[in-house]
């Protein structure tokens, strides 16, 4: 009951939040919401122990696919977004065959190479990807009215609500997966793949499953982005963006579901609001790098460790290991 | 006599120029506790790794109930009913004791992602949990369900490794040095549990250095040396076999 009340209160804050912000801050809020989905999907991938450098490119696959499907084939935008997510998942499935012949560091480098190949294909093929200039004038979300609220997608606030709903549902699904026996198996594959395999777990299949699911959600976040900003190009999804995702994830911590989300939210607020307003515009990347180094040195378990420290040991532990939901 | 459950037939495993297993053949009878012994470097663990599918043999075959299983991957061997434990304490140290054993139930209750999302796998989860608790109880670990596996004392970790294997309800378990690092009292209790396990119909093949445990426990013993079969027989025969004495004492003389 108390849990439900907290959740409702949190939801109310999220709904009220944009009304307290300026127009440009509302825009940042939309990006933040999309990035929360991106970084949460990245954590789903890291559950099996593999870190990828191609995740942002996979997000781009979702963005390109959704943009092209709606623009060229006139597919209704929300449907195009879902198809974009499916496309990203399918591309990930195809990539998994070469990539999962590798593990650890080699997988990291392999995923980077795969991502760069995709980006080069976007640059090389003007038709249909638009070359280095990318795709412009992507169809916006069509306005609609749900009775209590009329969505006007020219307003960031409307898109924020829409994105919030999509991201909320996605996070809920990812949470359910992690808390299920499937999630437990992901953890098992991460910590001891040999013992997992001796217990009959098809380790390769589970790695692929995590990769495909994470890529699907990343693709969805890309589609949300594409139809909001209306123009995408290969550089929107370059390795610099990937570094941001890594920074959010590392600073936040990966032991809990909320760790990377926390990292994303805190660093975005710091980056966009504190630093930009304080006039540190030019120095932001520098300060960002400094934060990454300092947090690795002094807070190796991430921001989440601060939150967990605030609760009692038992409570915190429960969150950590991705325990399967108790059945009672 | 019923046919052997596991047949190792002319098995050879080479790593480059090194022949770790050299035309090894032996049979494991259903419901037996079968010991695999030999001096260090005899190829016992390599044999385990081949039988469990971790290595693909260079030559020869492993057959389970007449079906060739050599060359299959480890999870495929496991799904046919041969489950192994590992030397040392190979566990999911970061997961709780109960979660460790739940992984062991993976084959009996395969997770389904769609059912999990829709929340319609409750019965499956409950059954898996019951199975896991049963395995924990068998090894006397019931009170430790919520502890992290990495925090357990060594003896309990060994027992947990066996509980994970047992939760899979295997036909054959391969135990790799189950008594290492146990004190005599723990060893004695573990031996009792193994007899109990065998009496439920599980066939046990174990590699072990503790001769006292091996002699007291096994129905049949295969002794290897330098990758080859040296001798086979019941504990009495092995104890007095001249080649076995030579291999062990001869090895000891070299060291000294």
Task: Tag the structure with descriptive keywords.
heterodimer; A: 328 residues; mainly alpha; 1% strand; B: 256 residues; alpha/beta; Rossmann fold; 2 domains; six-stranded mixed β-sheet; disordered C terminus
Molecular structure report:
The complex is a heterodimer of chains A (328) and B (256). In chain A, helix 3 packs antiparallel against helix 4, helix 3 packs parallel to helix 5 and helix 4 packs antiparallel against helix 10. Chain A has 15 helices and two strands. Helix content of chain A is 72%, strand content 1%. Chain A is an all-alpha fold and 328 residues long. Chain A folds into two domains: 215 residues, no CATH class; 90 residues, no CATH class. The C terminus of chain A is likely disordered. Chain B has 256 residues and is of the alpha/beta class. Chain B has two domains: 168 residues, P-loop containing nucleotide triphosphate hydrolases (Rossmann fold), CATH 3.40.50.300; 77 residues, no CATH class. In chain B, helix 3 packs across helix 5, helix 3 packs parallel to helix 6 and helix 5 crosses helix 6. Chain B is globular and about 60 Å long. Chain B starts with 5 loop residues before the first strand and ends with a helix. The C terminus of chain B is likely disordered. The interface between A and B is large, with 29 and 42 residues.
Question: From the alpha-carbon coordinates, what is the Rg of chain B to the nearest angstrom?
Answer: 19 Å
- Order of neighbouring strands in the sheet with most strands of chain B: 6-7-8-3-9-10
Which protein chains are joined by the largest interface, and how many residues does each one contribute?
Answer: A-B, 29 and 42 residues
- Individual helix count of chain B: 10
The protein's oligomeric status is: heterodimer
Distance between the termini of chain B: 45 Å
User: Which CATH top level class of the largest domain in chain B fits?
Assistant: Alpha Beta
Please estimate the helix content of chain A. Answer: over 70%
Within the largest sheet of chain A, what's the order of strands? 1-2
Overall form of chain B: globular
Question: Whole-Å distance between the termini of chain A?
Answer: 16 Å
Strand-pairing-aware structural class of chain A: mainly alpha
CATH architecture of the largest domain in chain B: 3-Layer(aba) Sandwich
Provide the low-confidence segments of chain B as ranges.
252-256
Number of strands of chain A: 2
**Could you tell me the radius of gyration of chain A in angstroms?**
20 Å
Largest sheet of chain B: 6 strands, mixed
């Amino acid at each position: 009951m108390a849990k439900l009340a907290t959740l409702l209160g949190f939801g109310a804050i999220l709904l009220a939040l944009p009304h307290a912000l300026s127009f440009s801050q509302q825009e940042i809020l939309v990006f933040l919401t999309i990035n929360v989905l991106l970084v949460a999907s990245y954590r789903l991938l890291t559950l099996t122990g593999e870190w990828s450098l191609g995740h942002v490119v996979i997000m781009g696959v979702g963005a390109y696919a959704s943009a092209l499907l709606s623009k060229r084939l006139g597919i209704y935008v929300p449907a195009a977004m879902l198809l974009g997510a499916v496309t990203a998942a399918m591309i990930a499935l195809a990539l998994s065959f070469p990539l999962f012949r590798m593990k650890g560091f080699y997988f990291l480098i392999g995923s980077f190479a795969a991502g760069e190949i995709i980006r080069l294909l976007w640059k090389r093929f003007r038709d249909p990807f638009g070359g280095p200039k990318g795709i412009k004038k992507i169809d916006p979300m069509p306005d609609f009215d749900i009775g209590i609220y009329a969505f006007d997608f020219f307003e960031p606030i409307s898109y924020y609500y829409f994105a919030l709903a999509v991201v909320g549902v996605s996070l809920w699904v990812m949470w359910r997966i992690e808390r299920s026996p499937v999630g437990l198996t992901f953890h098992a594959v991460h910590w001891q793949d040999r013992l997992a395999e001796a217990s009959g777990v098809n380790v390769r299949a589970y790695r692929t499953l995590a990769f495909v699911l994470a890529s699907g959600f990343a693709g969805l976040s890309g589609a949300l982005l594409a139809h909001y900003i209306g123009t995408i190009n290969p550089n929107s999804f370059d390795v610099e963006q990937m570094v941001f995702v890594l920074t959010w994830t590392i600073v936040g911590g990966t032991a809990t579901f909320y760790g990377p989300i926390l990292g994303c939210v805190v660093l975005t607020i710091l980056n966009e609001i504190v630093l930009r307003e304080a006039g540190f515009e030019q120095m932001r990347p520098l300060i960002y790098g400094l934060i990454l180094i300092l947090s690795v040195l002094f807070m190796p378990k991430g921001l989440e460790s601060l939150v967990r420290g605030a609760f009692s040991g038992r409570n915190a532990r429960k969150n950590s290991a991705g325990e399967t939901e108790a059945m009672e | 006599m019923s046919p052997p459950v596991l047949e190792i037939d002319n098995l050879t495993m080479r790593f480059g120029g090194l022949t770790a297993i050299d035309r090894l053949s032996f049979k494991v009878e259903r419901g037996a506790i079968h010991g695999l012994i030999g001096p260090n470097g005899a190829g016992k663990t390599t044999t385990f790794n081949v039988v469990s599918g971790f290595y693909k043999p260079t030559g020869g075959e492993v057959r389970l109930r007449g079906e060739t299983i050599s060359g299959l991957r480890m999870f495929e061997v496991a799904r046919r009913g041969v489950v192994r434990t590992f030397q040392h304490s190979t566990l999911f140290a970061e997961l709780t004791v109960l979660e460790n054993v739940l992984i062991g139930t993976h084959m009996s209750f395969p997770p389904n992602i769609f059912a999990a999302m829709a929340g319609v796998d409750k019965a499956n989860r409950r059954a898996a949990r019951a199975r896991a608790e049963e395995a924990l109880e068998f090894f006397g670990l019931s009170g430790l369900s919520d502890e992290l596996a990495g925090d357990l004392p060594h003896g309990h970790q060994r027992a947990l490794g066996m509980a994970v294997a047992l939760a899979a309800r295997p036909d054959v378990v391969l135990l790799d040095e189950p008594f290492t690092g146990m004190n005599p009292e723990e060893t004695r209790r573990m031996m009792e549990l193994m007899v109990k396990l065998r009496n439920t119909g599980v066939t046990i093949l174990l590699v072990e250095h503790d001769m006292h445990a091996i002699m007291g426990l096994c129905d049949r013993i295969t002794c290897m040396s330098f990758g080859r079969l040296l001798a086979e027989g019941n504990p009495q025969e092995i104890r007095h076999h001249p080649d076995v004495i030579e291999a062990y004492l001869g090895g000891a003389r070299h060291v000294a």
